Automatic annotation (TrEMBL):
Organism of derivation: Steroidobacter denitrificans
Location of the Cyclic nucleotide-binding domain: 16-115, 150-254
A Pfam family hit: cNMP_binding
InterPro entries: cNMP-bd_CS (IPR018488), cNMP-bd_dom (IPR000595), cNMP-bd_dom_sf (IPR018490), Rhodanese-like_dom (IPR001763), Rhodanese-like_dom_sf (IPR036873), RmlC-like_jellyroll (IPR014710)
Domain Rhodanese residues, every copy: 271-358
Protein name: Cyclic nucleotide-binding domain-containing protein
Residue intervals passing through the bilayer: none
């Protein structure tokens, strides 16, 4: 399968892409390419639940339902102006019957959100970036956010308000955005430029480098969710522009819609179906007591250990009170993991009654020990 650069004008020939604002259409064009598929190949199969929206550019497709031809679509025809059999799960299969076809595939969730915001009079890019900040990539940070699975959980009205309430901040190389130990006040999105994240430790006052961040990356949410002080410093490593959202707006518009809360019974049901307890407390707290089979990943390590987690696993994130666990679940959700938060935390379960017993201690206790 080959891909070719996509001309902006091509997108305008399709419905409902022709109704998008120019900045959204340009952003879509940069992330979409012209694809080719050979004779006899399937573009998609009946019953599949993929979330892509497909448009036929050239060639001929046959739509099959239960093995029977129900429609023929030719590139350039009135039928080809609309998405190809857009229902999910797919109600039919699409097979190439010409020598080859050319087509484009667009993330359906992102397209749906763009259309919703456009049609509800959402944000104006110039209001956010400033009219003095033109350029083909000026709205890439927005599209990067829109493409994250976490944003799919946020109601369109909330996202509209998020973008409208964000404040622009221009910074120079070397300026500190967040200082370790300070109170949390804003959630940040990088529009342009790069940042470095470091954490000071008792053995390293200069700070250990945790990450480099660039356009579209976000930071600052942990302190806002958990009401804790900043656990790391963020410094600009180039001149750049950030958008920031206040603590109150972040909690109301972004944090709550992204969190999935469960009680103990629901959590245990998730684990019984193949889910995993993820305890974000410190190792010493974990050793004191924890849920059976739980994995310990302290909150301050989550970002560094994301690659070690399974994206097909539903995680139930827990701590004593749900404060740290809600921060951990937010980070996981933001990065496309399925994560739920144990409501009220472990302190509300019978695990907190015997803090001296953990899973290993219980297994090592013999009947005679228990009766003495």
């Amino acid at each position: 399968m080959e891909s070719k650069p996509l001309e902006l004008g091509l997108l305008r020939s399709f419905s409902p892409l022709d109704g998008l604002k120019s900045e959204n259409l340009q952003s879509l064009a940069r992330r979409t390419s012209l694809q080719e598929l050979g004779a006899g190949r399937l573009l998609f199969k009946q019953g599949e639940a993929d979330k892509y929206t497909y448009y036929l550019i050239s060639g001929v497709l046959e739509l099959l339902q239960d093995g029977r031809t129900i429609m023929i679509i030719r590139g350039g025809s009135p039928e080809a102006r609309n998405p190809i059999a857009a229902a999910s799960p797919r109600r039919c299969s699409a097979r190439v019957v010409s020598d080859r076809i050319e087509y484009i595939g667009i993330d359906g969730n992102m397209l749906d959100m763009m259309l919703t915001w456009d049609q509800t009079g959402s944000y104006e890019v110039n209001e956010l970036h400033g009219v003095d900040d033109p350029g083909p990539a000026s709205d890439d940070w927005m599209t990067t956010l829109l493409q994250t699975k976490a944003f799919h959980k946020v109601p369109p009205a909330n996202i509209q308000a998020i973008f409208m309430r964000m404040q622009r901040v221009d910074l120079r190389t070397g300026e500190t955005v967040i200082k370790q130990g300070d109170e949390g006040d804003y959630f940040y999105v990088i529009v342009k430029g790069t940042c470095s994240v470091t954490r000071e430790t008792p053995l390293n006052k200069a700070g250990i480098k945790l990450a480099d961040l660039g356009m579209g990356d976000t930071f600052g949410e942990e302190a806002l969710i958990s009401d804790a002080r900043r656990n790391a410093s963020v410094v600009m490593t180039s001149d750049g522009t950030l958008m920031r959202l206040s603590k109150e707006d972040f909690r109301t518009l972004l944090n709550e819609p992204m969190l999935e809360w469960v009680d103990l019974q629901q959590a245990e049901d998730i684990v019984a179906r193949g889910g995993q307890w993820l305890d974000v407390r410190l190792p010493s707290e974990f050793e004191n007591y924890h849920m059976p089979g739980a994995v310990n990943l302290p909150l301050y390590f989550i970002r560094l250990k994301l690659k070690s987690l399974d994206r097909n696993t539903h995680y139930v994130v827990c701590c004593d009170t749900s404060r740290r666990s809600s921060a951990g679940a937010y980070i996981l959700s933001e990065r496309g993991f399925r994560a739920s938060v144990l409501r009220h935390g472990l302190a509300a379960t019978d695990r907190s009654i015997s803090p001296g017993l953990n899973e290993k201690a219980l297994q090592d206790t013999s009947p005679s020990d228990a009766s003495s």
